[in-house]
Amino acid sequence: RKSWQGDDWLRPLAARGTRQSDRLVALLDAFGVRRVLSSTSTRCLQTVEPYAKAIGSQIHPVHLLSEEAALGRDEEIADLMWQLRVQVAQSPEDPLVVCGHRPVLGAMQAGLHIPIQHLTTAQSLVLHIGDEAEPVAVESYPSPL
């Protein structure tokens, strides 16, 4: 972050981040993820790109999940996450992954109705949703490196 000279949303993954994103493929595949949503920031898109390519899927960019767009919009982010919970509950055969940024994660977790926790870079949470869109279980996976 400190050495990047351009707009932050254009900052790419560092070499370590690229290796981490490659290793996320196996984790996401284990859960049968079929839809890929991501912040519009380059590094988030690059994080989920290897998985999207592996399953032959498009990445659905969500500007609201970018650090720049999210500022002061916690309720909108929480509402988006609620809508995604409902979608997954209605179509459990269509699990999804959502990639966001540390400053946005609290609002994302609030919308999922799970305890807010600090996540390290490349750490993943897997949320299992019940029939009524309620959280049934949350699993945490550390960075793959």
Architecture overview:
Helices cover 43% and strands 18% of the residues. With 145 residues, the chain is of the alpha/beta class. Strand 4 and strand 5 form a beta hairpin. The chain has one domain (8-141): Rossmann fold. Helix 1 (15-30) packs across helix 2 and helix 4 crosses helix 5. The model has no long low-confidence stretch (mean pLDDT 93). A three-stranded parallel sheet has the order 2-1-3, covered by helices on one side. The chain has helices at residues 15-30, 42-55, 67-70, 74-90, 102-112, and strands at 35-39, 59-62, 96-99, 124-129, 135-141.
**Rg, nearest Å:** 15 Å
CATH class placement: Alpha Beta
- CATH level-four homologous superfamily name: Phosphoglycerate mutase-like
**What portion of the residues fall into strands of 2 or more residues?**
15-25%
| Shape type | globular
Structural class category: alpha/beta
State the separation between the terminal residues, measured CA to CA.
19 Å
Oligomerization: single chain
What do the pLDDT scores average to? 93
Helix content: 40-55%
| Strand count | 5
Q: Identify the strand order in the major beta sheet.
A: 2-1-3
Spell out the helices and strands N to C: HEHEHHEHEE
Task: Name the poorly predicted regions.
Answer: none
